[in-house]
Amino acid sequence: MVKDVFQINLDTDVLYKLRDKVNEEQNISYNKTYGKHRAWDKICAIMDRLDDTVSFLNELKLNTGKYKRSAFDFYDFMNNASVIVDCVKELVKIFNVSDDKIKKSTNIFNQVGSDEKGTDERYFEYLRSLCSVHPVETSRHRRYQANEFECCPFVSWNNGEIWFNDDCDIYAVVYTSKDEDNFKRVRMYISQIFEYVKTRLNFVVEITNAIDQYQKQVISDLRNRPIKKEIKFDNYVDYLKNLDSEQCERYGSDRWFPFEHIIKLFELKLSHSENKIKMNLYLNALKYAITFEHNSLQNMSCEGFENNGLIYPQRNIGTTLYNELYSPHSGSEEQRRYHYNLEKVSYLSYDSGYSNKQWAYKQLDGAKIFLEKYVSFKGAKSDFEHYALVELALYLDCLENKCLINRNIPNDLKFRTRPLSDDEWKELLSINI
After folding, report:
1. Which branch of life, at top level (predicted)?
2. Which of 150, 202, 366, 393 has its CA 20 to 30 A from that of 237?
3. Confidence of residue 149 (pLDDT cuts 50, 70, 90)
């Protein structure tokens, strides 16, 4: 007689929600520490292990009749189930979650042992040691042992061929090394073991909630820690360097628009006097936008005019005025025509290598018929100066087109080569973009 085939059904949704929550504020998760070390690598390893192990166990069928004496399928299950248990324990430690509810439970196996201090967790560890990890010497679970150590030659499915009238699903044969007692049988019920593994995996829900609270607390702490205002610094570049540091701490690798590039623009000495006058317009626009970006960093949000500087935002687009000015884009026909050229010019903004820079200059030459409407490349010296002039030209092009930048830059000569007339301004604002 072969009893029922067993197959666990573990909830995978709890793992999807865990990963989503960890990645929701990835920089905060990335900077979480565990002891003296960053916990990120361990968190990622745990999530991957949980995904794969849960999937494996959900597909594993037990008691199929394949194994007659040693239940290797059960060994497989116990070893991998222990991976799930250990992963949950580590997440509990990393995020400092109280797990007394599962750590002290006794209601699954109802095995408190000889000292009556046993728990479900301790009994599962005893079974795992006996059945699969330390079968030739299980010696660290005295409350469940019949002697100083126990040996387990095999674990067998209860198919009714040896012991009759026994309702257990599987049993471990145990040699006790006691003269008066040959062996004992440890009777096991798969429903109990399944329930134990499920309750441990489902505790991930509590951990996910704790991660959410941890992230909210970190964000609250950052919001309540004032970022130094411009007035606190001797010059604007030092102010930007501090903003860059704050941005890095708050968003880490998630930040798409670091201030390093902007700092270089403010430090740049242009070679041509006409370009200097026009560059001041662009830098003033950046300064205007950065006042809102300061708020955005302080509030950890880009929602609302206070944080994004957009009086007239674009529908269904999450951005800020600073982000738009970082690499101006008007969407004009000419910008689209020279899209490839302009993209490759970015090689001049960093150490991209000789070949890439030569290609960038070639593409720049191909786009000058458009760019020289706004700037002069005469006398330009460094790679970055050429790149900066392209960015300036793109900004000035935005001010001649119906785009997000033009709608949100104040109609003031501090930012523009000429102010828009009332009719031009009304027409610009009447266009839905």
Report:
1. Bacteria
2. 393
3. confident
Domain annotation covers residue 219: no
Rg (Cα) of the chain, in Å, rounded?
A: 33
Is residue 256 within 8 A of residue 323, CB to CB? The reply is yes
Read off the tokens for 38: 């960053």
Give the DSSP H/E element, type plus range, for residue 175.
Answer: strand 170-178
- The predicted model scores a pTM of 0.77
**In the chain, pLDDT over 90 holds for what percent of residues?**
70
What percent of the chain is helix, strand and coil (3-state, nearest 5)?
Answer: 55, 5, 35
The string of pLDDT tens digits covering residues 158-204 is 876 655 667 889 998 888 877 676 778 889 999 999 999 999 999 99
Helix spans in 300-382 (H): 305-308, 321-326, 333-337, 339-345, 354-371
Give yes or no: residues 242 and 178 share one domain: no
Gap between the terminal Cα atoms of the chain: 73
- The residue with tokens 């009714």 is 160
Burial environment of residue 421 by CB neighbours within 10 A (0 to 12, 13 to 18, 19 or more): exposed
Over 90: is that where the pLDDT of 264 sits?
yes
Average pLDDT, the chain: 91
Residue 317 belongs to what domain range? 229-430
Is position 221 within any domain?
A: no
Q: Which residues of 356-394 are buried (b: 16+ CB within 10 A; e: fewer)?
A: ebeebeebbeebeebbeebbbbeebeebbbbbbbbbbbb
CB 307 within 8 A of CB 376: no
Q: Can you give the pLDDT at residue 165?
A: 67
Domain shared by 91 and 141, yes or no = yes
Whole-number pLDDT of residue 3: 63
| Domain end among 143, 178, 211 | 211
Count: domains in the chain:
2
Answer yes or no: is 156 within a domain: yes
pLDDT confidence bin for 1, thresholds 50/70/90: very low
DSSP letter string, 179-241 = TTEEEEEEEE-HHHHHHHHHHHHHTHHHHHHHHHHHHHHHHHHHHTSPPPPGGGSSSHHHHHH
User: What's the pLDDT score for residue 136?
Assistant: 73
